[in-house]
Amino acid sequence: MSESAMQERFGAFGGRYVPETLIPALDELAAAYAEALRDPSFTVALDDALRTYVGRPSALSEAPRFSGRVGARVLLKREDLNHTGAHKINNALAQAMLAERIGKRRIIAETGAGQHGVATATACARLGLECVVYMGEEDMRRQELNVFRMRLMGASVVPVRSGTRTLKDATSEAIRDWVGSCEHSHYIIGSVVGPAPYPQMGRDFQAIIGREARAQVLDRTGRLPACVVACVGGGSNAMGIFHAFVPDPDVRLVGVEAAGRGLDTGEHSASLARGTPGVLHGSLSYLLQDADGQVHPAHSISAGLDYPGVGPEHAWLHDTGRATYEACTDDEALAAFGLFARLEGIVPALETAHAVAWVDARCGQWRPDDIILLCVSGRGDKDVAQVAQMHTFPG
Amino acid sequence: MLAERFASLRTSGRRALVCYVTAGHPDRGASLALVQGIAEAGADVIELGVPFSDPVADGPVIQQSSQSALEAGMTLDGTLDVAAAARPGVPLVLFSYLNPVLAAGRDVLRRASDAGFSGILVTDLPVGADPEREQWIGDGPLAFVRLVAPTTPAVRMAEIARHGSGFVYLISRLGVTGARADLPPGLRETVERLRASCTLPICVGFGVSTPDQAVAVGSVADGVVVGSALVAAAAKSVDGAVGFVRDLRSALDG
Fold it and tell me: What pLDDT is recorded for position A270?
């Protein structure tokens, strides 16, 4: 558990750009969070739940055939092996425990691919909390299986029909619920976005990924990786795996955004590559927007990356140059989805497939003794039906 | 201009009628006629809303008005044009989310003033959130109207009053904008708590939808803000919306 001081901003980015009604709720949350971190009864219970319920530490796998193809040693941080199949449970479970601690027994969440919604529904079922998940109608169609899983665990899934009917509008709708219910409800944001303290809290609860991975890589190889790679939508798995490596100057940090149909088509989700600073959902960060400050709809084949903003700490890592941000298209991610399944017997989430695609695109450009640490943020079971409809892989 | 209007209301013992409409809704021409019409019907202050793609503080009525205005091409600059063309003769408040204001550039406050605005309200810029940008707005030519919520503690109410000008907009209830059938209990106490630390006029909004509610709010506050109910009326007809404002006015003055 990180003991870093409460941070409202990352350089110029972050902040709390919310309706006045939410300010007291955010103050209360920040105080409760800081207090929980200092209370061993919370941290011990969380560590125990992560070990015995989520299944942590997650494995560090070799990727022998993929490594052979790209010409470097690729190590996989297996967040796909967590209970519920993605890194999202790390944050959802911790925040649900925090909500229980502060006496808020109704939980609100938004979800894109459904992974955060499933993780939140799971945590709520385990703790006996009421759970309401906002999900864009378009995403409900793309991710039917996850809608069923959430409902199976007792959550209400509310279809969002406004705007683009995807993650952006689901987030707006969840905020609207919270503006009316903040006295008795806790909002679990699914990524490192939103008003302070959410970006820091989300990062802290995901930082276990990087802490474990750094120790595992050192233990296995005796040295640090040359490069750490993760996909970036809002950026929670990337922030989680990057955080432990930020002080290691020789470790290159690469976030891979969704280039959708291509960075120059206007149909992508690459907020850092193509966006400009602006305010959405409570914080100042890079944002896809037009010249009038209206938020531009994002596009990605992957519902979890289909978001026009990005966490403010990524904006700061981008501007300071500590991390670099690249992008892969829908087609590259689809190809990597199949490639990884065939070479490693791992079906990655379409989100994760963007990070796989970026490593693969640099075949032969790596030094043979390079270690690449790749965050397998989630498994692709949820995507199989969608991909099957659009692709035929060679049998 | 806001200060003069509230001073004169105070002298005559009347309550302010503050009307919110979304610029460009139901369309650009109707929006212009609406601003002029509601001024003539007795609005004391008009909040002219800049449509935004992601209005997290707004309920379905204002969301839909924003979306349709955006689809018809309305922008912040277009909102200034509507104001400049309407010149309604009552104080205008530019009502916006922060992002369109930031995108409009450093000179936007002066341009808004030139277009006839006398105040600005930024929904998602609470007191203390961004001191640098708040100072930029506070030092500009427009009165800076700040919001107080039912959740705001008394200490913070005083801070908000210190950092605002023109009037204070008191949100009567938790939740997003939208007409409600009843007024929240405890409103009188909230207004009194705020008045203890605030010398600015206090206008109450969120949920006011009938002349009777306006009168009830007017009995405890300096002014009443009507938004969603008016936008919903304007979606049907400008004349109907103007008639609604006339009814509110006569109820408040009666």
Answer: 98
Which tens digits make up the pLDDT trace of A53-101? 999 999 999 999 999 999 999 999 999 999 999 999 999 999 999 999 9
Average confidence (pLDDT) over B144-170: 96
Question: Among A216, A89, A86, A110, which residue's Cα sits nearest to residue A172?
Answer: A110
Spatial contact of A212 and A55, defined as CB atoms under 8 Å apart = no
Q: Quickly count: other Cβ atoms within 10 Å of residue A4's Cβ.
A: 12
Closest Cβ opposite residue B123 in set A19, A168, A180:
A19
**DSSP summary character for residue A369:** T
- Are A280 and B100 a contacting pair at CB < 8 A? no
pLDDT band at B254 (very low <50, low <70, confident <90, very high): confident
Let me know if A104 is a catalytic residue. Answer: no
Enter the tokens of residue A139: 């995403």
What beta strand segments (E) does chain A contain?
Answer: 9-10, 13-14, 60-62, 73-78, 106-111, 130-136, 156-160, 185-188, 227-231, 252-260, 276-280, 283-287, 323-329, 371-376
Query: Are B126 and A181 within 8 A, CB to CB?
Result: no
The H or E element that residue B148 is part of is strand B143-148
Averaged pLDDT for residues A204-227: 98
Q: Which among A166, B72, B151 is positioned nearest to B22, based on CA atoms?
A: B72
Q: Of all helices (H) and strands (E), which one includes residue B107?
A: none
At a CB cut-off of 8 Å and minimum separation 6, what does A35 contact?
Answer: none
Two tokens, residue B129? 């959130």
Between positions 99 and 138 of B, the ones with CB within 8 A of A are 99-104, 123-127, 129-130
Question: pLDDT, tens digit, for every residue of B48-82?
Answer: 999 999 999 999 999 999 999 999 999 999 999 99
B 128-187 residues with CB < 8 A to A? 129-130, 146-153, 156, 160, 171, 174-176
- Name the percent of chain A lying above pLDDT 70: 97
Distance CA B47, CA A104 (A): 36
CB-based contact (8 Å) between B68 and chain A? no
Residue-wise pLDDT tens digits, A352-378 = 999 999 999 999 899 999 999 999 999
Would you state the pLDDT for residue A389?
86
